[in-house]
C-alpha cells in the first residue's frame, strides 16, 4: 500500500481588502474579484498555484459561480455557510485539506454591497429568519436577530451584574482603535454617554451598541509550506483551529451566557499547544457589543461573568492589555455582512507589521507573535476560532 501523505504546515501567504465603506457602483462579484486580485498580488504567487476555493453567500451554486467569475477551476471547494463564523470554519477546513495534501493553495474570498443595496432600494432589511422549520415558532413574535442578541445580553446582566456602561466601553474602545485605521468607516471619538443616549434599537442595545452597515470585501490565500519560499511576504502560520455549533431556536440554547466559542476556542488552544496568556492580539466578531464581551470570557481571557470588568480601563485598545479588533471591528471599521474573513485579514496584517498607524507592538517594542481570530455566526449559533503565529 502507498505511504500516507505526511501532514504539511499551512501558512496564510496573502491577504487583502477590496474597496470598503461606502462603495456605490461595483457589484458584489466585482468586490470579490478586486479582493482576490489584491490578495494574490500580496502573496507574490502565480494564480496557477490556486487549486482550492472557498466562498459563501453569493451565487446560485456558490462557490462554483464565483470561481467561474474569477476564472478559477478548483479541484477542492468549500461553501460552508454558518453565518459570521463561516470564514473561520472554512479556513479551518482549508488548512486541514492543505495539511492532508488534498490542495496546495486555497483562496477564501468575500464581497458584499449590503449598504449600497439598502440605499438603492430605499427599504430596510428584514432581520427575522425562518418562516419554516423550528424557527417558525419564534417568527410570529417578531423575534429578530438583534432581539436574540439583546435577550442574551440582558441575561448576562441579570446573572453577573454586567452594566450598560461596560457594554458601551466595547464600542468606545473599538472606535478609538478605528481612529488610526484610514479604511475605517467611522473614526471620530465616541464616549460612553453617547453610546447610552443613542437611539434605542432593542433593549439594552442602542444604535451604537450595534455594528455599522457597509460595503466591502476581502480575500485570504492559504498555502502549503513548500510554496512559502516563493511568496513575497512574511508567512503567518495556522497553529490551531476549532469549530462548534450550538442552536438555532432560542429555547434550545442551554445558557444564554455561554457561546459556542467556549468549545471552538478550547479546541483551537489545545491543538495549537497554547493558552490565552500566549495571545498578543485578538480579532473577535462584534456585530454587537455583547459578542465581544462574552467571547472574551469563553475563549478564556477572563472567567465567566468577569467580562464586564475585563473590558474596562482600556484593556481592548491597541496599547491595552489585550488589543482587540485593532482595525475598529464591525462596530466602527466595516461590516458588510459575514465579517469573519476581515478578522483574519487584520490578524495577519498585525502579525506581519503592516498595519501602519494602527500597528500593535508589545511592551518591548516588538511585533505581536500570536493572534486569535474568533468568528460567531447566527445568534451565537456557530463559532470558528483560529490561532495564527509569525514564528
From TrEMBL:
Entry-linked InterPro entries: Thiolase, Thiolase-like, Thiolase_C_2
Domain Thiolase C-terminal: 242-390
Cross-referenced SUPFAM superfamilies: Thiolase-like
Pfam families: Thiolase_C_1
Name the UniProt record assigns to this protein: Acetyl-CoA acetyltransferase
Amino acid at each position: 500500500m502507498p505511504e500516507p501523505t505526511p501532514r504539511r504546515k499551512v501558512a496564510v501567504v496573502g491577504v487583502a481588502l477590496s474597496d470598503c465603506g461606502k462603495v456605490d457602483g461595483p457589484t458584489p462579484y466585482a468586490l470579490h474579484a478586486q479582493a482576490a486580485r489584491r490578495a494574490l498580488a500580496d502573496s507574490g504567487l502565480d494564480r496557477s498555484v490556486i487549486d482550492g476555493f472557498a466562498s459563501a453567500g453569493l451565487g446560485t451554486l456558490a462557490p462554483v459561480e464565483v470561481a467561474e467569475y474569477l476564472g478559477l477551476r478548483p479541484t477542492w471547494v468549500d461553501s460552508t455557510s454558518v453565518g459570521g463564523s463561516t470564514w473561520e470554519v472554512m479556513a479551518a477546513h482549508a488548512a486541514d485539506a492543505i495539511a492532508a495534501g488534498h490542495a496546495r493553495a486555497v483562496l477564501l474570498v468575500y464581497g458584499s454591497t449590503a449598504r449600497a443595496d439598502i440605499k438603492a432600494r430605499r427599504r430596510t432589511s428584514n432581520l427575522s429568519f425562518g418562516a419554516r422549520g423550528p424557527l417558525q415558532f419564534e417568527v410570529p413574535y417578531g423575534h429578530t436577530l438583534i432581539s436574540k442578541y439583546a435577550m442574551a445580553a440582558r441575561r448576562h446582566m441579570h446573572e453577573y451584574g454586567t452594566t450598560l456602561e461596560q457594554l458601551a466601553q466595547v464600542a468606545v474602545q473599538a472606535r478609538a482603535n478605528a481612529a488610526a485605521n484610514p479604511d475605517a468607516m467611522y473614526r471620530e471619538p465616541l464616549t460612553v454617554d453617547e453610546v447610552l443616549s443613542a437611539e434605542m434599537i432593542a433593549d439594552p442595545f442602542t444604535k451604537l451598541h450595534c455594528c455599522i452597515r457597509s460595503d466591502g470585501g476581502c480575500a485570504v490565500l492559504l498555502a502549503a509550506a513548500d510554496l512559502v519560499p516563493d511568496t513575497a511576504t512574511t508567512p503567518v502560520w495556522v497553529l490551531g483551529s476549532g469549530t462548534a455549533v450550538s442552536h438555532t431556536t432560542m429555547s434550545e440554547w442551554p445558557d444564554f451566557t455561554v457561546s459556542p466559542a467556549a468549545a471552538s476556542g478550547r479546541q483551537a488552544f489545545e491543538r495549537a499547544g497554547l493558552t490565552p496568556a500566549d495571545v498578543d492580539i485578538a480579532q473577535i466578531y462584534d456585530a454587537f457589543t455583547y459578542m465581544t464581551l462574552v467571547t472574551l470570557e469563553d475563549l478564556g481571557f477572563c472567567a465567566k461573568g468577569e467580562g464586564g470588568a475585563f473590558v474596562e480601563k482600556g484593556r481592548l485598545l491597541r496599547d491595552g492589555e489585550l488589543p482587540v479588533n485593532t482595525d475598529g471591528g464591525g462596530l466602527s471599521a466595516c461590516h458588510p455582512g459575514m465579517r469573519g474573513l476581515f478578522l483574519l485579514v487584520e490578524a495577519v496584517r498585525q502579525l506581519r507589521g503592516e498595519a501602519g498607524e494602527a500597528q500593535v507592538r508589545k511592551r518591548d517594542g516588538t511585533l505581536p507573535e500570536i493572534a486569535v481570530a474568533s468568528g460567531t455566526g447566527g445568534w451565537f449559533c456557530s463559532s470558528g476560532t483560529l490561532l495564527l503565529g509569525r514564528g
